[in-house]
């Protein structure tokens, strides 16, 4: 037995020596391909989370957002209980559940356009991309993203609270673990610039004129994609003017805001967009809105469908160079809109990982099909959905 053990030790030692002599080294960890930059998620400090209490009290006096100073994290469970009243500048008195909208309220813009006037509203994160949500008198919710909690009464800029306040009590606990989550390889090892070799850099109009840039990609099923956009505050736009007239009329009769105004049809892979989404304030939707178009590609990433799209921000009107008619003017700095999509997904808690990819032939500057110019750093943001 001792002889066998000695023989094993000698063989192992010789193998180690030979490996050392031949210059062999232990396998290095896989590196992220050139042209790929993983977007790092900043987590709150451990001390910040561990110092949190089980209950808090806040006071809300009007429509300005109040920073509670409390950081919520994905996996938290919170329960709100609100009391008190506010006296508005138009003579109405409201409780935390708010009041049903009147006709004048249809022409106002509220933080939560689907909620009652004056209802208590919340938001996680101090970003324009984050989506406010209704709280009302009572609400229990599981937190899906991380950031500071903000509160306000759901009021438009022309409605102020002359007196009164809302007293908000919040209980904080952890959500029970639902079970193990399937491991997913790091996005930096799943994608590369070659992923976009067969994807056109630009979409085109019906006449084939090159237009907006392909500047984002999403990895997930169609159901995941649609739910992610909905959770991030994007709405599916109407496909025709007839649909818009009907839905706009129904929204008005219900004292609701209409934000699903149609957008033009553009083409990629020889076909019209599969999905169209927008985010806008009701009164500005005709001229100013975030909007995008999405196409499913034949490719997959880690076995999941790859979708690509073009996103721009309408910020006014200009002359269409093709026919002299009026068309939308886009913000020429289109990278801001690309990043807005990623931020909206991150704020909604639907994003697993994200990264920037620089294709082999990046587009840096060009003109849209209508004649407007735009500029970019050439990168495409790729988002892996939960």
SSE inventory with pairings:
Elements: H1 2-21, E1 36-38, H2 46-50, E2 55-60, E3 66-72, E4 76-88, E5 93-94, E6 120-124, E7 133-134, E8 138-142, E9 147-153, E10 161-174, H3 187-190, E11 202-204, E12 210-213, E13 216-219, H4 222-231, E14 235-236, H5 241-253, E15 267-268, E16 271-272, E17 275-279, E18 288-301, E19 304-319, E20 326-330, H6 335-348, E21 351-357, E22 365-367, E23 373-375, E24 380-385
Parallel strand pairs: 13-24
Antiparallel strand pairs: 1-21, 2-10, 3-9, 4-5, 4-8, 4-10, 6-7, 6-9, 11-12, 13-19, 14-17, 15-16, 17-18, 18-19, 19-20, 21-24, 22-23
How would you describe this protein?
It is built from six helices and 24 strands. The protein has 386 residues and is an alpha+beta fold. Strands 1, 13, 14, 17, 18, 19, 20, 21 and 24 form a nine-stranded mixed β-sheet that branches. Strands 2, 4, 5, 8 and 10 form a five-stranded antiparallel β-sheet that branches. Strands 3-9-6-7 form a four-stranded antiparallel β-sheet, with no helix packed on it. Residues 1-29, 244-255 and 283-287 have low confidence and may be disordered. Strand 19 and strand 20 form a beta hairpin.
């Amino acid at each position: 037995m001792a002889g066998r053990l000695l023989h094993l030790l000698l063989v192992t030692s010789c193998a180690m020596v030979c490996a050392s002599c031949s210059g062999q080294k232990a396998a290095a960890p896989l590196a992220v391909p050139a042209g790929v930059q993983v977007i790092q998620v900043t987590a709150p400090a451990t001390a910040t989370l561990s110092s949190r209490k089980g209950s808090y009290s806040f006071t809300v006096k009007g429509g300005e957002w109040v920073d509670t100073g409390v950081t919520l994290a994905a996996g938290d469970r919170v329960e709100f209980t609100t009391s008190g009243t506010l006296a508005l500048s138009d003579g109405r008195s409201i409780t935390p559940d708010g009041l049903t909208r009147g006709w004048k309220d249809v022409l106002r813009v509220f933080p939560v356009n689907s909620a009652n006037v004056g209802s208590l509203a919340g938001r996680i994160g101090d970003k324009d991309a984050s989506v406010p949500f209704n709280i009302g008198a009572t609400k229990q919710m599981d937190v899906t993203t991380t950031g500071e909690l903000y509160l306000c009464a759901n009021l438009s800029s022309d409605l102020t609270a002359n007196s009164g306040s809302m007293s908000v009590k919040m209980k904080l606990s952890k959500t029970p673990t639902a079970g193990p989550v399937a491991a997913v390889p790091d996005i930096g090892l799943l994608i590369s610039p070659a992923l976009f070799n067969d994807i056109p850099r630009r979409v085109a109009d019906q006449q084939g004129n090159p237009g907006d840039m392909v500047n984002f990609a999403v990895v997930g099923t169609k159901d995941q994609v649609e739910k992610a956009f909905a959770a991030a505050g994007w709405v599916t736009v109407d496909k025709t003017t007839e649909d818009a007239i009907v839905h706009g009329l129904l929204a008005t009769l219900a004292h609701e805001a209409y934000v699903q105004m149609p957008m033009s049809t553009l083409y990629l892979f020889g076909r019209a967009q599969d999905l169209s989404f927008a985010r806008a304030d009701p009164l500005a939707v005709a001229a100013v809105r975030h909007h995008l178009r999405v196409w499913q590609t034949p490719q997959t990433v880690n076995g999941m469908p790859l979708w690509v799209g073009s996103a721009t921000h309408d910020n006014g009107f200009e002359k269409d160079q093709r026919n002299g008619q009026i068309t939308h003017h886009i913000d020429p700095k289109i990278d801001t809109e690309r990043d807005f999509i990623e931020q909206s997904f991150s704020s909604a808690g639907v994003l697993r990982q994200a990264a920037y990819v620089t294709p082999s032939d990046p587009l840096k500057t060009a003109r849209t099909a209508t004649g407007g110019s735009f500029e970019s750093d050439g990168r495409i943001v790729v988002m892996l959905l939960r």
